[in-house]
Give the backbone structure.
Amino acid sequence: MINGRKRHAVVDTLGLLLAVLVTPADTGDRAAAQILLARVVAAHHRLELVWADGGCTGSLIEYGLTALALVIAVVKRSDDMRGFVVLPKRWIVERFFAHLMQSRRLVRDFERRTASAEAMVYWWMTLLMTRRLTRPRPSRV
């Protein structure tokens, strides 16, 4: 039995959640990305470009082009970098996961089913988005 889960997410350029897929920890990134990208394309028809990390290479790029009509651009970290480096476009997803860690419920794997774990991510993102909408803006004079 494999303990643990992976959260695979697609966010827009503002860091707002488009889709999430929770899988067991032994599921590969490319297999989960195929399922997740198919969900996203079905819901968001105008999507044309997806930035992905280094785990989403190989046959996934061909699958994106042929089956989903998506261009998948891989954001890679160069080998000569040491320590923490902010990668272009990748920080948006990392910020999304940091927002998830603000919820006590999402810090640990409390959910038995992956569907309920996905629902908790959607619930937290709904709370975050409504907080952003209701936040007072500075007045322009």
About this structure: The mean pLDDT is 85.
